[in-house]
Design goal:
The protein has 143 residues and is mainly α. It has one domain (20-122): Topoisomerase I, Chain A, domain 4, CATH 1.10.132. Helix content is 41%, strand content 10%. It has 5 helices and 2 strands; from the N terminus they run αββαααα. The chain has a two-stranded antiparallel ribbon with strand order 1-2. The radius of gyration is 26 Å and the shape is extended. It starts with 24 loop residues before the first helix and ends in a 23-residue tail after the last helix.
């Protein structure tokens, strides 16, 4: 069925895409700070075996961009796009630096698993082995 003659449906949508979640960088910063406070207020609770039996301790929760995005209700691709937005890039750069520093310092002080954090931060020790194999005519059975 075609649209009614003389319809004005094209006027119903004034913008392309969903409305922006954060127009004001200060509001984004305030919500990121709430995530940082939530991380501090919600450490991991783990049980460890000691000579006295099981002991329950609290361990610092590492901050992550993924966790921040879940907290803000956005996708990580949105966060990456915000890094290029002129109005939000100073906030995203500061938040990225805070999260990087928290993870780096936590790994350096044995609060976090250094292997996992170093991979996450792109600091993993990468080694490359290069060489060549020479094929020699003759008796291969000696190899």
């Amino acid at each position: 069925m075609p649209a009614p003659q003389g319809n004005q449906f094209w006027k119903q949508r004034a913008t392309d895409g969903a409305p922006r979640k954060y127009e004001d960088p200060d509001v984004l910063w305030a919500d990121c700070a709430k995530y940082f406070e939530w991380v501090d207020a919600n450490p991991f609770k783990v049980q460890i075996n000691t000579k006295q039996g099981l002991t329950r301790i609290e361990k610092i929760r590492p901050m992550t961009i993924g966790g921040l995005c879940l907290f803000l209700g956005i996708d990580e691709t949105t966060w990456r796009k915000w890094r290029d937005r002129e109005d939000l890039s100073p906030i995203t750069a500061r938040v990225d630096a805070i999260i990087y520093e928290q993870k780096f310092a936590g790994a350096a002080s044995d609060q976090f698993n250094a292997n996992i954090i170093s991979r996450d931060l792109g600091l993993a020790d990468k080694r490359s082995v290069e060489g060549s194999i020479a094929i020699i005519d003759g008796d291969d059975a000696a190899l």
